[in-house]
TrEMBL record:
<feature type="binding site">
    <location>
        <position position="61"/>
    </location>
    <ligand>
        <name>[4Fe-4S] cluster</name>
    </ligand>
</feature>
<dbReference type="GO" id="GO:0016020">
    <property type="term" value="C:membrane"/>
</dbReference>
<feature type="binding site">
    <location>
        <position position="151"/>
    </location>
    <ligand>
        <name>Mo-bis(molybdopterin guanine dinucleotide)</name>
    </ligand>
</feature>
<dbReference type="Pfam" id="PF00384">
    <property type="entry name" value="Molybdopterin"/>
</dbReference>
<dbReference type="GO" id="GO:0006777">
    <property type="term" value="P:Mo-molybdopterin cofactor biosynthetic process"/>
</dbReference>
<dbReference type="InterPro" id="IPR027467">
    <property type="entry name" value="MopterinOxRdtase_cofactor_BS"/>
</dbReference>
<dbReference type="InterPro" id="IPR006657">
    <property type="entry name" value="MoPterin_dinucl-bd_dom"/>
</dbReference>
<feature type="binding site">
    <location>
        <begin position="498"/>
        <end position="499"/>
    </location>
    <ligand>
        <name>Mo-bis(molybdopterin guanine dinucleotide)</name>
    </ligand>
</feature>
<protein>
    <recommendedName>
        <fullName>Nitrate reductase</fullName>
        <ecNumber>1.9.6.1</ecNumber>
    </recommendedName>
</protein>
<dbReference type="GO" id="GO:0043546">
    <property type="term" value="F:molybdopterin cofactor binding"/>
</dbReference>
<dbReference type="Pfam" id="PF04879">
    <property type="entry name" value="Molybdop_Fe4S4"/>
</dbReference>
<feature type="binding site">
    <location>
        <position position="91"/>
    </location>
    <ligand>
        <name>Mo-bis(molybdopterin guanine dinucleotide)</name>
    </ligand>
</feature>
<feature type="binding site">
    <location>
        <position position="57"/>
    </location>
    <ligand>
        <name>[4Fe-4S] cluster</name>
    </ligand>
</feature>
<dbReference type="Pfam" id="PF01568">
    <property type="entry name" value="Molydop_binding"/>
</dbReference>
<dbReference type="GO" id="GO:0051539">
    <property type="term" value="F:4 iron, 4 sulfur cluster binding"/>
</dbReference>
<feature type="binding site">
    <location>
        <position position="766"/>
    </location>
    <ligand>
        <name>Mo-bis(molybdopterin guanine dinucleotide)</name>
    </ligand>
</feature>
<feature type="binding site">
    <location>
        <position position="54"/>
    </location>
    <ligand>
        <name>[4Fe-4S] cluster</name>
    </ligand>
</feature>
Amino acid sequence: MYTSTTNRRSFIKKMAVLSAMTAAATMFPGIMFAGEQEKNLPKGGNLDWKKAPCRFCGVGCGVLVGIENGKAVAVKGDPKSPVNKGLCCVKGYHSVMAMYGKDRLTKPLVKKNGKYVETSMKEALDLIASKMKETIKDHGKDSVSIYGSGQWTIPDGYVASKLFKGCIGTNNVEANARLCMASAVTGFLTSFGIDEPMGCYEDIDHADVFVLWGNNMAEMHPVLFSRLLDQRLKRGVKIIDFATRTTRTSMAADKSILFLPQTDLAVANAICYEIIKNGWVNKSFVEKHCNFNKGLTNMGYGLEDKYKFKDKPEKISFQDYKKFLEDYTPEKVEKISGVSAKDIKYMAAYYGDPNKKVMSLWCMGPNQHSRGTWMNNLIYNIHLLTGKISTPGNSPFSLTGQPSACGTVREVGTLTHKLPHGVVMNKEHREFAAKIWDVPVENIDPKPTYHTVEMFRALDRGDIRFMWIQVTNPMVTMPKLKRYRDAAKKEGRFIVVSDVYPTPTTDIADVILPSAMWIEREGMYGNSERRTQYFEQMIQPPGEAMSDTWQLIEVAKRLGYEKQFYYNEDTHIEEIYTEYRKHHDNKKHNMAPLEVLKENPGMQWPYVEGKPTQWRFNSKYDPACSNGEDFHFYGKKDGKAIIWQRPYEPAAEEPDAEYPYWLNTGRVVEHWHTGSMTRRIPVLHKAMPHSYVELNPEDAKRMQIKNGDKVKLTTRRGEIILPASVNQRGVPAPMQVFVPFFDENMLINDITLDSFCPISKEPDYKKCAVKVEKA
């Protein structure tokens, strides 16, 4: 970033050059410019370089931030980081610029007579605490809630959970990772009984084949994708893109295979059929380490508020499972999925080859899915049947969207049913948390309340009256958005929003708190490979901006919980992290001490006897294994993983005569999620200034739509007009369209469907029916 001593135009020009190089590397995967970043950094002065994890996605790249005269003026990849090895994507290279937008929030704002009025931080915090007390008194403890984020730091999420679950006594704590990672969590829990991937990024250096399940990795995780491409140059590995649209990942892959939306379920089952049919099952591994289960299929799609669902697993035999798969021969699945039997057999042969190490990688495709938990289970099934799991290069690996969706949501437990080390439903877990939190165990309610979609439905109904939203932008990201935007505006609702910039979410707030961003405060993130990374405060936040952690602590003290929130302002992050580590003090999940995090570019958990664990459940690498076998899936009582019988089922809403197209939504490389930070970065905003709708060229030709023409999309929820993108970056299959969601001026989620996986409660943003017309 530029300062008063650095010429602004020169800086932006240099960063534009760097942006072009990095964009090229993503547009044409395989081209990376290691070392070039050094030539384009501001010259002169003595920059003080400090390490941090990148502010953006869940890859968790290590960066070095250059500080000069109290400002962050430059950023480069950290060559010591084993994650990115000195590289960054286009967003990472510009990350420091996100802190210096002209419309940065610097003072608290309180809505009075319909207008926002500046006030002091003390007055704003006093008002929040008094409103919480009043709401609890009038409507009960479950009328207040907090909605956080996978962008929360670990201390942010920890104190939020402690305040609401431990002190106030409500489980109304959710985070936006419910919208992106919940299916990964429930998939892991149902298959292994414990959350988070067993492998790590080093698997990339060992695998022979990479299968990308609905994952545009070239744009969404470009630094990791560059590592795949590097391995192809070095070792000739194969990359298979399995997706519903053609993307930059497809162009870079060795083979691109397109499937019809939702039918990935059927294809995964067909691969399992082929593995069994051809005798590729690792019989010894399966007999020793796996059980077979089937669950309920009468699940619904989360569309009815009164629909109650609880999966009841039933043990089955291998022969039962084999018989079930007879409905999923490649020839039968070809008719369902549009994937040729030949291509299904092609993928199955790689998984089944005992001489090939296979890494499966996925993100939002299988997760934002009305059967997201099932889809995660099915990918694990393939790896379990072949025994290709928990060894270097053999890895089913769920990638993460946000910098601390793992660290702050999955590990800290900022979901309604979770505690930092367990679940609220378990008495022993409640007692353990209560002891650490110094609260009566009765304070912790044993019953979960609302997952994210249901939390906003409760706000609509009036069951929730107070909501504090931190570090997220739900008035852009919620599905069927208009319903929940209207809900927040209803009489008798009080909304607090903590953020760094004005957003559509701050527009519905009664109080807006200015937050310190990233390196303006101290904290930790946890990335996709279980790597906890520390960053120090490097610069001062603007105006009265305050860290989200300390905002929560100040309100907690005002609510009368001084005893539980005793932390000293100067040392509170160290005190909180030390306390938090007590929740994970065991071989299965021990966290590295703070001094280790400060000295290193992150450290993976479980951290046992001074060493990180790279591959879990494998006794060769994991000290938590204790059954005397080569593998121990210790999340389950019997130490065995589960191979699930999960059928193909159609989507919640499919195209019909009135709405004949599929609508898919997602991200772009230049912008991160809702763009509230990246749109303040001039280079990135100019590169991608607005949203668009991708059309298949033949569909566009038939409707006489050219690139840039206005297109009207209509669903049963509403309509939106966007410019057409034809034969540009991505190409949807016929009768499908794709729209990115970063543009707050073109809110695609106004028309998406709020169906969700009934197990994970994660919405399906990838599939609903839409009518497409030239506007």
